[in-house]
Amino acid sequence: MSAGTSLVETNGLGISFGGVHAVNGVDFKLADGELRCLIGPNGAGKSTFFKLLTGQYRPTRGSITIRGHAIDGMESYEIARLGVGIKTQVPSVFNGLTVEENIWLSARRIGTRTEAKDVVAHILDMTRLQSLARSTVGTLSHGQRQWVELGLVIATRPALVLLDEPAAGMSDGEVERTAELIKDINRQCALIVVEHDMAFIRMIAKTVTVFNRGSVLVEDTVGRVLADERVRDVYLGKELEVRQA
Amino acid sequence: MSKHIPLVATLVLGLAAIFVLPAFVEAFTLMELMVYVIMSILALSLGFVWGYGGILCFGQSAFFGLGAYTYAIAAINFGESTAAVGLAIAVPALFALALGYFTFFGRISDVYFGVITLTVTLILFNLVNSTAGEQYRIGSAPLGGFNGIPSIPTLNIPGMPDRVLDPQSLFIVCVILLMLVYLGLRWLLSSHFGRVVVAIRENEKRADLLGYDSRKYKLVTFAIGGGIAGLAGCLFANWGAFTSPTVFSLAQSAQVIIWIIVGGYGTLLGPVVGCFLVQWLTSYAGTLSAINPSLLLGAVLIAFVLLLPRGLVPLLQTAFVRWYPRLLSIKRQPDKAEARDALDRIPLAGTEP
Hints:
Helix content of chain B: over 70%
CATH class of the domain at 1-73 and 162-169 and 192-245 in chain A: Alpha Beta
CATH architecture of the domain at 1-73 and 162-169 and 192-245 in chain A: 3-Layer(aba) Sandwich
Strand content of chain A: 15-25%
CATH superfamily of the domain at 1-73 and 162-169 and 192-245 in chain A: P-loop containing nucleotide triphosphate hydrolases
Number of helices of chain B: 15
Strand content of chain B: under 5%
Radius of gyration of chain A: 18 Å
CATH topology of the domain at 1-73 and 162-169 and 192-245 in chain A: Rossmann fold
Order of helices and strands of chain B: HHHHHHEEEEHHHHHHHHH
Oligomer: heterodimer
Structural class of chain A: alpha/beta
Strand order of the largest sheet of chain A: 6-7-8-3-9-10
Number of strands of chain B: 4
Distance between the termini of chain A: 45 Å
Structural class of chain B: mainly alpha
Number of strands of chain A: 10
Largest sheet of chain B: 2 strands, antiparallel
Largest sheet of chain A: 6 strands, mixed
Helix content of chain A: 25-40%
């Protein structure tokens, strides 16, 4: 990647399903090592935006550049090889395999057998899943599977990690632990985090981008965004006032 | 140690079959057992493709039949079996590569893939069926239409066309090849490639998002399965020195699926066990005038789908894992040192707070 180039850049990005513009004219930039939160009401186009960035959907308008490469027409696996990892909203893991096998498969894609073994040990330690290493992932709780998926994603040493609602369905303790984990991950790579939990956003975010009806409504620091009248109107409403009180 | 159990068991069973059966079993039974062994190789091919790769191929008999016909045509033309065996593996594998390329890279869904493979085997069945007449020949090998190809030269010692294997030797070769295919697949599944294949079966989208091109892995898996099925077809053509279009038939394809359902999906031992069991049952039912073997086969399939959907081998594995430690704890007596330690740990009266 040449100096001064954004890690991710989209220009006029859009996708339509029938007459519905799920993502519409999005201009977005993310710098190397940045942590950005993406918020917006349900149906705002956040998850669709992630699917466009990972090649699961092909845009009908605009362009996406990742690490200087135009990814138009690229398959998901090619985009992953550019250094993009995604943790999906519903944990997408290998349910029939053990935690260790899940992370090994991910680590082995980029390293030798010995390197993969070391990476597995490191990730198990980082996600505190050592005691569950030999457990079949399908038997774990929702929160534990979220961490397994997070482990899977970071084992490929990505330059960019996309996290779609990483704290969904977690207890307060698990949410705090996840926030710490995300900050740890951010020391190594850039992140875009989609989340609805404002307390969680405050724990991790500096800059927030707000999506509404497939477009970027506002992009600013977390404090300013949460105080923005338009954001309150479209998304937060009274819930923010209650939390701030 | 426990991971070496399958290897040791395979070697013991294989060596027992090689050294004991040809010496003590009469020729008719040996020939029947040889079919079971050959069909077990076919069962393993689909057991790998479907059970581990998650690719349900309804037309595995297409590759089986291609192997049989390729061997027959090549052996008749060459007058020697070594190159014919190689071709009987290579041609079905290449055919699977070509078929798989268009289906996997065309992102054909699982249901349509099943329909396509089923249609392909039916097309081959009808195609070969309609090759009666002198004009249908490849080199000096007439295809023979519905009557098939008789008098196929059987396996000879490589490089020595005059030294043809007798039925006992052919049986030993079949057992050795079954062992090699089984152990080869076990090795493959423990490799990086094998683990990715299983991961793709578990969650194809996730494998793609981690940077694995699932289409390529599925394609190679399918081609390996095609090659193994071709080997089974080659051995089947050797067994009777004859092949006919029935090797491509729908019944042949359906049987392989039934063997796997009965033996156990997602295991390598299951297809072999299912193949032996169902074939023996079908053969036994054939001797009873009161029972139609096809009806019996249907009843067995329904019973397994309803009552034992995971198949026999996974059921036995679960039972073994659950009961083996209990059996050990009952049988194992503590030695003297352990008993003394245990006594030492019992607090004396009045010493406990």
